[in-house]
Design a protein that fits this description.
With 288 residues, this protein is α/β, with parallel strands linked by helices. The chain has eleven helices and 15 strands. It has helices at 3-9, 16-32, 37-44, 48-60, 82-85, 90-102, 117-125, 139-146, 170-177, 202-213, 252-260, and strands at 34-36, 64-67, 70-73, 109-113, 132-136, 152-155, 159-161, 166-168, 181-187, 190-192, 196-199, 215-221, 233-236, 243-247, 264-268. The strands form four sheets. Strands 6-5-4-9-12-14-15 form a seven-stranded parallel sheet, sandwiched between helices. Strands 1-3-2 form a three-stranded antiparallel sheet. Strands 10-11-13 form a three-stranded antiparallel sheet.
Length: 288
């Protein structure tokens, strides 16, 4: 079932409290594979009747299987849909996005943007820029940018993944291979010094790797929860990444390892109005 149509027909599902609660249910299933209604109600501080409605809706969307007295996971590697991730770490993502936009040169310039909730914030933050060409495989990013008449938008072809609303596969990869962009803005499900930049889906990883290969500079945007996390499929090695922008909740030890691998690490401070200075790899020069 298309989650887009479902959420339009059920506006209560997009409330912040409800999306947070449903995301918590899916996160619990990702860790435990099966959960009871009683434990969920206790952990989330809501009634069993409220949770029954949530579980029924998630089951209808094909995101879990309801059981007698609870629910079980469909797939241990499944992702939380982008619609439910959109409200998570919003302040961090907005600050990360503003820092990323500061790094895009003025004047005529081409930017590639992958799918994801943090990259969507970058697309919104680019709304006041002019003379930009945006190349994306994300339907949500394309719609966001297409509403700004001063931006030129190129969207790739491909098969749309319902969990992320990204076009993936050979059509999308060939589009990226046919162009050159100044900067690629890459979202991720995880980044580590040892594992590189990773995502849940191998087809999405190949598509995003084609985007990375087309760019002169690659900026990874990731809230602190993604730092130190490794998921199924590698999108890029750290040697392909110029910069990482994250927030002050990120693991500082892992950030040092990433910086030592040659990546410029920029940390936005969630307690203040200005981002901190980037962490430098040993021997690297500071930002100009």
């Amino acid at each position: 079932m298309s989650t887009d149509g479902y959420f339009e027909a059920h506006p209560r599902a997009v409330s912040v409290k409800r999306s947070d609660r449903m995301r918590s249910v899916l996160s619990a299933l990702h860790e435990q594979k099966a959960v009871s209604l009683a434990s969920l109600a206790s952990d989330l501080g809501v009634s069993a009747a409220t949770l029954r409605r949530d579980l029924a809706d998630l089951d209808e969307q094909g995101l879990l299987v309801r059981t007698h007295g609870g629910a079980r996971a469909l797939d241990s590697h499944s992702e939380i849909p982008v619609r439910l991730r959109d409200t998570q770490f919003r302040e961090a993502k907005q600050r990360i996005a503003r820092r990323a936009v500061e790094m895009i040169p003025s004047g005529p310039y081409a930017v590639a943007i992958s799918g994801g909730t943090t990259t969507a914030e970058v697309a919104r933050a680019l709304g006041n820029r002019t003379e930009l060409t945006i190349v994306t495989n994300s339907l949500t990013t394309a719609l966001e940018c297409a509403a700004r008449p001063q931006l030129k938008v190129i969207i790739t072809g491909g098969v749309v993944r319902l969990s992320s609303f990204e076009a993936v596969g050979s059509l999308s990869e060939n589009t990226f291979k046919a162009i050159n962009v100044g900067t690629a803005i890459l979202g991720t499900d995880g980044i580590t010094a040892a594992g590189g930049v990773t995502t849940h889906d191998d087809t999405e990883a190949r598509t995003n790797n084609a985007m990375v290969a087309s760019a002169q500079r690659v900026i990874v945007v990731a809230d602190g929860s993604k730092v130190g996390r490794v998921t199924l499929a590698k999108m890029a090695d750290l040697s392909q990444i110029s910069d990482l922008i994250t927030d002050s909740n990120a693991d500082p030890v892992e950030l040092e390892r990433i910086a030592d691998a040659g990546v410029q690490v920029h940390v936005v401070d969630l307690t203040g109005a200005r981002p901190s200075r980037p962490r430098q790899a040993k021997g690297a020069s500071p930002d100009a």
